[in-house]
Here is the input.
Amino acid sequence: MKRQMVAMLAGLVLAISTTVVTPPAALADGPAQLTVIGKVDNTNRSGFEPLSDAFFKFREMEFSKAFEFTYADLAALPQMTVRAKAEAWPGPVSATGPALGDVMKAAGVAPDAKLSVVALDGYTIELEAADRKAHDWILAIAADGKPIGIGGRGPGWLIHDTAGKTVNSDIEGRWVWSVFVIAAE
Here is the structure.
């Protein structure tokens, strides 16, 4: 009896470990990681849908048009690496991702647009055109050579290079992590 149970358990483990789930073609490169809403000239999705956009509904964000990026979309844009260090960090971090300007250009956002960068928890900063020009902002999708995800600083992390300096918490506070939406005005 014990041998039969061990054999059944081994068969079950083998069956579970060899199951392959193939996503539909529409999801082959993953779900949206970033949605740009507001004044966007390029769109690749419909406007706000209360049922399918449950998290946007929770965040009370409605929109008529948007451009969304998957991880593959963000990774396909030219990549930049910045080194940043804040006072509370044990050392500098190398963050890699597309330039914020390239992301906005792909979505058809005007260079002079004011941006509201929003994290999953609702934390938001506003970036005026002058703020965007003052630094080489990136939307990091990797840090220290590893992709960042939810639970870390992902799905996207707005950050800029610190030119070898250690910055204070005020500057670090503008580096929004867990970015999921950018609203262009």
Remarks:
- Residues 2-28 have pLDDT under 50 and may be disordered.
